[in-house]
Design a protein that fits this description.
Length: 117
């Protein structure tokens, strides 16, 4: 895994966030990894070249894992936290764009979210 591989995954996230029309997206880091933020809060980050981590309500995690276990999974590290890892190479752009929009809504300030929806 190289930093170029991580950059490629992060470039994809930025492109899809732009395509989804998500407003006020900031580029930053989350625990030292590249992240997209809204209102100062990370809604998605790149853990490594294989793994993207989404911000997600805890109650929404299990249904996604059951729906597509080849994409979404749980580790002890994320159990009980509003974060869900996924396999970057397996998820398609359309689904990832939808998950980015959902994660953005989860983290965006209420007024901004209302203006987007």
């Amino acid at each position: 895994m190289t930093s170029a591989d991580i950059d490629t995954v992060f470039d994809r996230l930025q492109r899809l966030a732009t395509e989804a029309g998500l407003p006020e997206v900031e580029i930053g880091t989350n625990y030292g990894t590249p992240a997209l933020k809204v209102g100062g809060k990370a809604f998605v980050s790149v853990k490594n070249a294989e793994t993207i981590v989404l911000a997600i309500p805890i109650a929404d995690k299990e249904p996604l894992i059951e729906m597509a276990p080849e994409i979404y999974y749980q580790t002890d590290h994320y159990r009980g936290w509003p974060s869900l890892p996924l396999r970057a190479a397996v998820i398609g752009d359309d689904e990832l764009k939808q998950r980015l929009a959902d994660a953005w809504r989860f983290r965006a300030p209420r007024k901004l979210r209302a203006s987007f929806d």
